[in-house]
């Protein structure tokens, strides 16, 4: 065991090869999904603001705001997950 650590120039905790590629791919996936959720949250927020200014039923405005909050939380957790993978 100790002989392999002496021969290898890489630290024992460093990931190599496919493991490093897979980690990078997972991080990129979480960042892209977080970006999509953030854009969708902004679109629902715009819809809620538009509904509020046009005197639509209050429950429709609150539903749009609820979906906005839900998508924003999904985006935030996805970005945090991508950050924790490092």
SSE layout and pairings?
Elements (H helix, E strand, L loop, with lengths): L1 H6 L10 H36 L4 H27 L2
Describe this protein's structure:
It is a single chain. The chain has 86 residues and is mainly α. It is 80% helix and 0% strand. The chain is built from three helices and no strands. It has helices spanning 2-7, 18-53, 58-84. The longest helix has 36 residues, at 18-53. The mean pLDDT is 87.
The gist of it:
Helices cover 80% and strands 0% of the residues. It contains 3 helices and no strands. The two termini are 26 Å apart.
* Intertermini distance: 26 Å
Oligomer: single chain
| Helix/strand structural class | mainly alpha
Profile the largest sheet: none
Number of helices: 3
What are the secondary-structure elements, in order, as H or E?
HHH
Average pLDDT, all residues: 87
Unreliable stretches:
none
- What proportion of the residues is helical, as a percent range? over 70%
The whole-angstrom Rg is 22 Å
Number of E strands: 0
Globular, elongated, flat, extended or rod-shaped: what is the shape?
Answer: rod-shaped
Strand content: under 5%
Describe this protein with a few key phrases.
single chain, 86 residues, mainly alpha, 3 helices
């Amino acid at each position: 065991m100790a002989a392999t650590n002496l021969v290898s120039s890489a630290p024992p905790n460093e990931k190599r090869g496919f493991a490093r590629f897979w980690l990078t791919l997972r991080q990129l996936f979480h960042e892209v999904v977080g970006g999509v959720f953030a854009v969708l949250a902004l679109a629902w927020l715009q819809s809620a603001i538009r509904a509020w200014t046009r005197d639509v039923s209050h429950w429709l405005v609150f539903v749009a705001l609820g979906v906005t909050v839900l998508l924003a939380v999904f985006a935030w957790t996805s970005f945090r997950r991508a950050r924790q993978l490092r």
